[in-house]
Amino acid sequence: MSAPRSRIFEPLPTTVFTVISALAQAEGAINLGQGFPDEDGPEEIRAHAARALLGQSNQYPPMRGVSSLREAVAGANRRFYGLTVDPAQEVLVTSGATEAIADCFFGLLNPGDEVILFEPVYDSYGPMIALAGGHAVPIRLEPPDFSLPREALARAFGPRTKLIVINSPMNPCGKVFGDEELGFIAKLCVEHDAYALCDEVYEHLVFDGRRHRPLMSFPGMAARTARIGSAGKTFALTGWKVGYVTAAAPLLETIAKAHQFVTFTTPPALQEAVAFGLGFPESYFEGLSVRLQAKRDRLSSGLREIGFEVLPCAGTYFVTAGYGRLALGEAAEALCKRLTREAKVAAIPLDAFYTDGLGRPYLRFCFCKREDLLDEALRRLGGCLARDRK
Ligand code: PMP
Ligand code: GLN
C-alpha cells in the first residue's frame, strides 16, 4: 500500500541542509554547511527565558504574540530604521521566520498569483508559494557579483505579479541590496501595485560599517511590505524559532489569519526573553557584527590561500567560494560530499539554491563557528586538496 503524498512535497528531496548535516555527523566532520552558530547567544537572554518558564504562565499566549515582544519589535523598528509601527496592529510573532514566510504566502496569495524571487534562493519559499497556489517567477543573480539584472526584473513584473521576495542580506551569497537597487525595486512595486515580502533575518549581520536598510523605509513601500525578522539570527539562538512580521495593519491582518491556523502561538517564555534582548544597548548589535566579520575574514583568507576564489560577502553567516581554479573537475554536490568524507569538512553547493541545476563551481561555507574550528577546517581542506593535486 502506498502512502498518500502531496504533489507539492512528493518530488522534493530532504533539504540539502539536513542531508549535509547528517553526513557531517556520520563522518565526524566539521560542519560548515548548515547555518547555525556553534556558541549559544547571550546568557542573559537564556536566563530570562528560564525565569519566565518557571515564573510565568506556560499556557497559550495571545495569538499575535505577547505584548512585551510586539512592543519591542515596534521599538526596534523605530530605533534601527526610524519606522513608526503600531505594536497592537502591525506586529505578529511567529514560530521562526520559516513560519512567518509560510504565513505571508498563505495569507496574501490566491491561485495563479505570481511571485518574483531571486535565485540563489532560500529553499522554503518555492514549496510554500506552490502550496498557496502561487507561481514562482525566478530572476537569477549570478556569481561572481550577484548583480541585479534590472531589465529582466522589470520585464518579470506584470498584471499577475502579487509579490516580490527580497532576502537582504541574502542567503546564500552574502549580498546586501544597495539603496539604488532597493529604490528600483520599490518603484516597480508601486508602478505594478505589487507587494514585497522582505526576509530580513540577517538584518543585524551586516559588515564593514554598512547598515541594513529595509525596503519598507522606501517611498510608497510602508503599506505594501511585510518585513520578517528572526531572533534565531539576531541572538544566535537558531533553535528557538521566534520570528516576527512587521506590516501595515490591513496586510498584517490577513497574515495573522494564516498564522492562527499554522501554529496559532509561539512559546511565551521565549517571547519574553526575546523582548528583553531587543532592548539590548547598541554595543550588543555592533559586537555581533564585528565578531562575525572577523570570522568571515579568517575563513575567507584561509580559503583564498588554499586556492579558492572567495567572493565578497557583505552580510549573513556565509561566504561563497569558487573552486574553478582548483581544476577539480567535480560537480559541486559530489565535491561537498567528498570533502565531508575525505577532508572531514562539510559545505553546501551554491547550485542547491538555483532551480536550473547549471552546475556552478561554487560552494557555500558557514563562518559563524569558533576560530579554532575554522582554523582546523582550513587545515583539513588544505591538506585534502593538496593530496588531490599530487
Ligand atoms: N530565511 C532565511 C534566508 C534563512 O537563512 C533562514 C535560516 N534558517 C530563515 C529564513 C529561517 O529562520 P528561522 O530559523 O527563524 O525560522
Ligand atoms: N538557514 C540555514 C541555512 O541556510 C538553515 C536552515 C535550515 O536548516 N532549514 O543553512
Question: Features of this protein?
Answer:
binds glutamine; 15% strand; binds 4'-deoxy-4'-aminopyridoxal-5'-phosphate; 390 residues; 13 strands; globular; four-stranded antiparallel sheet; alpha/beta; 13 helices
Write the layout of secondary structure elements.
Blueprint: H1 16-27, E1 30-31, H2 43-55, H3 67-81, E2 91-94, H4 96-108, E3 114-119, H5 125-131, E4 135-140, H6 150-156, E5 161-167, H7 179-191, E6 195-199, E7 225-230, H8 231-234, E8 243-247, H9 249-262, H10 268-278, H11 282-306, E9 309-310, E10 318-322, H12 332-343, E11 345-346, E12 348-349, E13 362-366, H13 371-389
Parallel strand pairs: 1-11, 3-4, 3-5, 5-6, 6-7
Antiparallel strand pairs: 2-8, 7-8, 9-10, 10-13, 12-13
Helix pairs in contact: 1-12, 2-10, 3-10, 4-5, 4-9, 11-13
This protein binds 4'-deoxy-4'-aminopyridoxal-5'-phosphate (PMP) and glutamine.
Q: What are the bound molecules?
A: 4'-deoxy-4'-aminopyridoxal-5'-phosphate, glutamine
User: Unreliable runs, pLDDT <50, ≥5 residues?
Assistant: none
Largest sheet: 7 strands, mixed
Average pLDDT, rounded to a whole number, is: 97
Determine the number of helices (DSSP H or I, runs of at least 4 residues). Answer: 13
Radius of gyration equals 21 Å
Strand order of the largest sheet: 2-8-7-6-5-3-4
Residues in helix, %: 40-55%
Overall form: globular
Tell me the number of strands: 13
Between the first and last Cα atoms, what is the distance in angstroms?
52 Å
Following the backbone from N to C, one meets helices and strands in this order, namely HEHHEHEHEHEHEEHEHHHEEHEEEH
Structural class, from helix and strand content?
alpha/beta
Query: Strand percentage, roughly?
Result: 5-15%
